Amino acid sequence: MYTNQSAEELEEMQCTSEDMLKAQNSIWMKINFAFTYIIIFATFVMSVVAAKILKLRNVFSNGTRFLLLITLLNANVNQAVLLEIRVSFNWKTD
Asked: What is the pLDDT of residue 14?
């Protein structure tokens, strides 16, 4: 899209309201992000622990163990995507 505005004029423009900007930069949003980061990294650590337990203790059948490992993989991929989204959001708001 072409515009007649200079780069300085475009930088001054905001695509959100002041209230939304305040909400996104509030202390509660920062607490939310910190809590989410803790949960994401706890998922990674606990998944490694769970995978080791599944490998060492042969309580489940092979099919059940395979499904549990795939579920752990899915949880880690999901958390990795969420982490990437959160990190990219933090880069944009800083």
From this structure: 65
